[in-house]
Structures are given as C-alpha cells and as structure tokens.
Design goal:
Blueprint: H1 7-14, E1 20-23, H2 30-43, E2 51-55, H3 58-71, E3 81-84, H4 85-96, E4 107-108, H5 111-124, H6 134-146, H7 151-157, H8 161-179, E5 182-183, H9 185-198, H10 200-207, E6 212-215, H11 223-233, E7 239-243, H12 258-261, H13 263-266, E8 271-273, E9 277-282, H14 283-293, E10 305-308, E11 315-319, H15 322-338, E12 347-351, H16 357-366, E13 371-373, H17 378-381, H18 383-396, H19 401-407, H20 417-430, H21 434-438, H22 441-444, H23 449-468, H24 475-485, H25 487-493, H26 498-521, H27 527-540, H28 543-550, E14 554-558, E15 567-572, H29 583-588, H30 591-604, E16 607-616, E17 618-621, E18 624-627, H31 632-637
Parallel strand pairs: 1-7, 1-8, 2-3, 2-6, 4-5, 6-7, 9-10, 11-16, 12-14, 12-15, 13-14, 15-16
Antiparallel strand pairs: 17-18
Helix pairs in contact: 1-2, 2-3, 4-9, 5-6, 5-8, 6-8, 7-8, 9-10, 9-11, 14-30, 15-16, 18-19, 18-23, 18-26, 24-26
This protein binds adenosine-5'-triphosphate and magnesium ion.
Length: 657
C-alpha cells in the first residue's frame, strides 16, 4: 500500500481517523493521497459503502473510482460512494425532497430552461428588456444562490434598481420552478442546505450513511458546499480535505479560499500535512509556476520542489495574429506526431475564453490531426438532443413546463403557440402546471375545437410514453417512442436538404446510443436515473472528457476545465492582457487579477515535460483588428515584471536566464 508514496503522503494515508487537512501545491500528489487513503480504509476493515468521497467533476470521480479499484479488489456492489457535490445532492434530494414540497421526480433545469423562465418572469412583471435583461436576471439569481442568498434576503441586500427588480424576479422565478416541479443546478446544493438546516433528523439520517468523508479540490468549495460538508461530517469527524489555495479559481461562483485556510480552526485537533515534492512537472516548468504565483499576496506560503529537476526550458512565442498563432502551434504539434515523438493524446492546448479554440480547430482539421474539445457543451446544445431529452423529461415529470413547451408542438401537431400561451395564462392564474390545465376539460374550452382535439391526442401520446418507460428505459423503447411522436417530421421540417436531415437524424441516434450505453451499465435502468446522468454530465461538461480516453486525440480545453489533469506537452495560448488576465478582471484589478494569476498557475502546472506559451500581437474582434499587449503574467514568470521593455514585440522571445 505504501509503495509509491513519500513520507508525508504515507502519514496522510495511514492516519485513518479524525479531521485531516492536506494543503499542498500543484502536482504534489494530493489526489493520489485521497485514492490511497480510501483503499487503505477499506483494507483496514471500513466497508466501502461507508466511505464518501467528493470531487469537483464527474470525470475526476470516475477516475478516482477506477484508481481505487486498481489498488484493492472490490465486489461490484461494494464500492465507495465517489461523486461530485451536485450528484451527491441529487441523491439526497431524491430521498428527501418531499418534505420541501417537491416531488421525488423533480426535473433538473439547464441553462436554456432557466433563461426561458427568466424571460417569462420579466414579461410578467412587465419589465422592458432595457432595464433588466433576462440574462442579467439569470446571472444575478445564480450569483445570489451561489452565495447562499435566498429569496427573502435578496430583497434586503439589493441596492441598485436592477437588483431590486431582480429580487422580485427571483421570487417569481422560484415560484415558477415550484409550479413546474423543477430545480435548477444551484438549487441542488441550496435545497440540501435548507433541508439540513431545517430538519436535524434528516441531517442525522443522511450523515449516518457514512463514517468517512474525503473532499478533493477543497479550495473551491463555496459557502453552501462548506455547510454541507460540515453537516455530513460533524458526527463522525472523520473528514479529510485536500487542496491548494493557489488553485482557487471559482471565486466568481462564490468559492472562498478561506474555507481551506480556516480548516484547522473549524476542526480542532486536525492533523495537518504538507506535501512539498512535485512529481508532475520538470524543474524548469515548476520554476516558472513558482515565480508566477509568488506575485500573489495573501497566500499560504508553501514549498514546492521538483522531483524531476532540470528539463526542457519552457518557450514563450509571439505571433503576428491569432491565425499564425494557431498555424504555428499546430505545425509544431504536427511535427512531433509525425516524428513519432508524441501521441496526440499526450498533447493539450489550453485557452482562457471560448472564442479562442475555433482557429485551432480549423488548423487541426486542415491537417487531419484528431482532436477533442473538452468542456464543450455542443452535444447537449443540439436541438434534436434537447427535444428528445425534453420528451423524456415530460414523461418523467409532466409538470416540467420548459420541457413541455419545447415539445408540445414539435413536430407540429396543431397546438399553436397562441393556444399554449392561453393555457399557460390559465395555469399561472391558478398556480397549477400547464399539464394540469391540459387535463382539465373545462379549462380546455378556451381553445377552438381542433386545438382541443390536438391537445387530447397529445395527452394520449404522453400517457403511452409514461407507460412505456414505467419499468425501465432502453434503446428499443426509446426508438419506439420516437416513432410514436413522429419526430422524423420535425427533423425533416428543420432540414433544407438530405445532408442536413441526415446530420440532424444522427443526433437523435446519438441519444439512442447514450441510452443504450446507459442501460449496459445498470442492472435496473430507470428513466429518472438516465435523465439525472444527462443533466449532471451536461452541467460540468465532463461527458466529453471520456471521449479522449478512448480516442488518441489532442485535447483542447479551457484552463478551468484543466484543473486536476496533466499532459506531457502543453500549449498555453493567448497570453495577452484582456484574455489572460481576462478583460473583466483587468477592469477591476485587485483580487480579480489574482484569481486570473491562479488560473495561469493552474495552466502552467498541468505540463509534465514541455510547455509552450504563446500570444498574438493582433487579434480580430467583430471583424476589426486590434493590437494586443503581452500578458503581465509573462513578464512576471520570467522575473521581469518591472521591465515591460524586456519584451521586444516582433521578435520571437524565449524565456530563460
Ligand atoms: P493538482 O494540484 O494538480 O490536483 P495533485 O496534488 O492532486 O495535483 P496528483 O494528481 O495526485 O497531484 O499527482 C501528480 C502526479 O504525480 C501524478 O502523475 C501522480 O501519479 C504522481 N505522483 C504523486 N505522488 C507520487 C509519488 N510519491 N511518487 C511518484 N509519483 C507520484
Ligand atoms: Mg488533484
């Protein structure tokens, strides 16, 4: 068990009880400690099902499950519970939501459902778009929720006009969600926090399911997650958290680095462990990372030494525009692959903003280099995928109004938008759902006879579907239902030619495929668990990451999505003021820029053997060309922060002493 661990790691892995904090820099083996510790607990007699480990992404959870299985053999039904905060909370709520007034089969809304509810809410309170746009409302609601601010408090803390209107909108938004028996992503955490706060018995009941709690990436917990961790662990006090204050990158979502720093005060008698060897990156890369992060004040001072000193010197390169940046980066990737020095999967391109990957994608395609975009939602954003998933959501929870509205007339079946709006007015007036109004023959009389018949046929369709998926979901049943819906008509209607029809139809096929792989994994595949998996995967976009495991492809991913991962060869692109640090941070400076610096630190520390950082001297925005300034982080990394002339634009600049 101790093989491949240093002394500090051994101590962490062999201390099996009581609170423990592992606070250490990037690549020092924190995640390794968590997996080994889980295996060691099991070896010492803890039942796997009594262990709960929480990580930041689905991918990380899978990876951890996998690594534990490698360390110790487990029966398939005797596994530790390893999950993200969100899936942990979904499971708790499925058991307990009824006391909060939600049915156990509540729906989980995605961002586009949220925005359609925000639009509806603003229409109802008759707000012109100019005062508060739907997306401002959506942003403010999420901002508040991430900071644990409930409807009642929002009205109190609102200061500007916008915030006052948003507070009113927030209340209506929550009423809407309740009416649709739906929760949004932030609610998952907030509702569990409410549940634990209001019902101590339920808290005890949920906490007593486990004897050990381990949390990875603890620096990124927000106040609500902090409360949940506390609520689950305060009974047994066997809580082990690992993290790195220098990698806290979710401040904009309300995460507070204070939580990790105050751990020893919160949990008296905590064992504190520091890991000081970095096993990931060669010395030359680690040196840059250490130099950079030293520019942040208010950090917990840590030592991080390279277990592999020396190494190839990181490169810094300047290009005339974003196209030549992409060309050159891809060229260098191409050469390494052609020479057989690297496999595509060993290489990653990291970027800050979502506009950046497009040119890289084009270049990679041009040269037939396989790549995957990690952290892209594209699959779930496709219309066909959203439609089919909405149908399934309606079958699971007919009250789910955003989903209902999506599919009620897709394909067209004679229920016009005007008819739907009439029914929704009735529903809103009586505080019931659209579905309930549809079922009410009296209420339907406001519609003309043909529309009424169309609604009745639709109800029959939904009822047949509910019955079909009552026991289980599988690919055959889904196909049968898609035929029953006549969804092919919708695909045909939206396609201009055969090629487009085929492409759209293949998205439908992919949903069927995902159902089929889901059923393979489960002994009793339920519709609700499938929807849950889809909702959670779409949310942190981790689904795509699996693709890279079986595909030998270059990874394109955002710095945020790269947390916890490692690649032999890393390209960090777009190191320019306004990109990294992001322009929103530059506008306010201070802590916002410090967070960007931590993000840059995360990027640099993903690289194992080779790192290239690049920037473009000009960049096109909305068709106009703008000059770009090198990122301050570049100057800092090479120890020239006070000397902007150290940079000589026009010439390739290489780092080093
Ligand atoms: P991050 O801060 O980026 O999340 P981390 O601290 O979680 O990093 P790990 O991912 O656990 O670090 O480890 C980084 C790399 O170092 C991994 O490849 C891991 O296998 C390796 N490693 C960790 N500890 C040791 C060790 N004692 N001996 C050899 N290799 C190790
Ligand atoms: Mg880690």
């Amino acid at each position: 068990m101790d093989a491949g661990l240093n002394d500090a790691q051994k101590l962490a892995v062999n201390t099996l009880a009581g609170p423990m904090l592992v606070l250490a820099g990037a690549g020092s083996g924190k995640t390794r400690v968590v997996t080994f510790r889980i295996a060691n607990l099991i070896k010492h007699g803890t039942k796997p099902s009594r262990i709960l480990a929480v990580t930041f992404t689905n991918k990380a959870a899978q990876e951890m499950q996998h690594r534990v299985a490698e360390l110790i053999s487990l029966k398939p039904d005797e596994r530790p519970e390893i999950s993200t905060f969100h899936s942990l909370c979904v499971r708790i709520l499925r058991r307990q939501a009824e006391v909060l007034g939600y049915p156990a089969k509540f729906s989980i809304l995605d961002a586009s459902d949220q925005s359609s509810i925000c639009r509806k809410v603003l229409r109802e309170i008759r707000m012109a778009d100019s005062t508060l746009r739907p997306r401002d409302l959506q942003y403010l609601i999420s901002h508040w929720k991430n900071r644990g601010i409930r409807v009642a408090q929002a009205a109190h803390i609102a200061t500007t006009d916008k915030e006052h209107i948003a507070a009113v909108g927030y209340r209506r938004y929550q009423d809407e969600l309740m009416r649709c028996a739906a929760v949004d992503f932030d609610d998952l955490l907030l509702l569990v926090d409410d549940l634990f706060g209001t019902y101590p018995d339920i808290r005890k009941q949920e906490a007593s399911r486990f004897d050990h709690l381990l949390v990875d990436e603890y620096q990124d917990t927000n106040g609500i997650q902090y409360n949940i961790v506390r609520a689950l662990a305060e009974g047994h006090r066997n809580i082990c958290v690992v993290g790195d204050d220098d990698q806290s990158i979710y401040g904009f979502r309300g995460s507070e680095v204070e939580h990790i720093l105050s751990f020893p005060r919160d949990w008296s008698g905590a064992t504190e462990i520091r890991l000081e060897a970095n096993y990931r990156s060669v010395g030359s890369i680690l040196e840059l990372a250490n130099t950079l992060i030293a520019y942040n004040s208010n950090r917990f001072d840590k030592i991080l030494k390279a277990a592999r000193p020396g190494g190839k010197r990181p490169r810094i390169e300047q290009f005339k525009d974003e196209e030549s940046e992409a060309e050159e980066v891809v060229k260098s990737i191409r050469i390494q692959i052609a020479r057989g020095e690297r496999n595509p999967r060993e290489i990653a391109i990291l970027f800050r903003t979502n506009e950046q990957p497009r040119v890289f994608e084009q270049e990679l395609r041009k040269h037939d280099i396989p790549y995957v975009i990690l952290g892209s939602k594209s699959f779930f954003d496709r219309k066909e995928v959203k439609d089919i998933v909405s149908y399934l959501r309606v079958l699971s929870n007919p009250q789910d109004e955003p989903s209902m509205r999506r599919i009620v007339n897709a394909p067209p079946r004679g229920i016009s938008n005007a008819s739907v709006m009439k029914l929704i007015d009735v529903a809103t007036e009586h505080g019931v759902s659209l579905w309930e109004v549809m079922l009410d023959d009296e209420a339907l009389k406001i519609l003309a006879v043909p529309a009424r018949d169309a609604v009745r046929n639709f109800i029959e369709l939904i009822r047949r579907g509910i019955k079909l998926f009552e026991e289980r979901i599988d690919a055959d049943r889904l196909q049968q239902f898609i035929t029953d819906c006549r969804y092919e008509k919708e695909v045909a209607r939206n396609s201009n030619d055969d090629a487009e029809r085929e492409m759209r139809w293949s998205s439908v096929e992919e949903v069927v495929n995902s159902v089929s792989s889901f059923t393979e994994k489960r002994t009793s595949p339920k519709l609700e668990s499938f929807l849950e998996e889809i909702a959670l995967a779409a949310s942190d976009m981790e689904e795509d990451k699996d693709k890279q495991l079986d595909k030998d492809a270059v990874a394109l991913l955002t710095l945020h999505a790269s947390k916890g991962l490692e690649y032999p060869v890393v390209y960090m692109v777009g190191l320019e003021e306004g990109i990294l640090p992001h322009k929103r941070a530059v506008a306010v400076e201070g802590e916002a820029v410090n967070e960007e610096r931590r993000l840059a630190y995360v990027g640099v520390t993903r690289a194992q053997d080779e790192l290239t950082m690049s920037m473009a001297l000009t960049r096109r925005k909305w068709g106009r060309v703008y000059e770009q300034i090198p990122s301050r982080f570049l100057f800092e990394m090479i120890g020239q922060a006070d000397n902007p002339n150290a940079y000589n634009p026009g010439k390739k600049v290489r780092s080093g002493k």
